[in-house]
Amino acid sequence: MNTPKPLATGHFRMTAMIVTVASTLTTLLSGCAQLDIPAADAAPAPTTATVLRVTDGDTIDVRDDTRGRIRVRVLGIDSPEVHRPGYSVGCWGPEAERFATETLAGQRITLTQDATQDANDRYGRSLAYVNLADGRDFAVESVRAGMARAYVYSDKPVSRYPDILAAENEARAALRGLWGPPCNGHTESTPT
User: Fold this and answer.
1) Marked catalytic residue, from 73, 144, 149, 160
2) Catalytic-residue membership of 53
3) What global pTM score does this model have?
């Protein structure tokens, strides 16, 4: 007959200690979840602003209600160049700038950063989504109108990329804006 051997005293103590530590950690962590501590990589809360000036189809100057005057590069899109020193104006660039001006100039907007992206680009511009007063995303609307294309910087797509890409596919299929003549999707600027 096989008789069970008693557990070694050291093994029993180690098991008891592990159970106690696990129980304590569970209690502590469940208490922290109730504190509503934001994740370290969470984007700051959206801020409101007034659009002062449109620089081009994807860059605007705003008076942010919290930070004052700042330049914003709209996340998730790239519009043809208009004012890049030493380069030609990209095909459909003036139209993209006009669309942004008609849609944004003087308007109250909401700026929302994306936790997957940096807060600023290498030129010091704030990187943010621009939401119109009615809640529409300017990036999606601009791309849907054929004024810009979906843009991924450094292999890190923005969180809203699927919506922006869907809008681009819609514009391409309809040959809208930069996807139709005379550009046919070719909006590159060249050195002058």
Assistant:
1) 73
2) no
3) 0.77
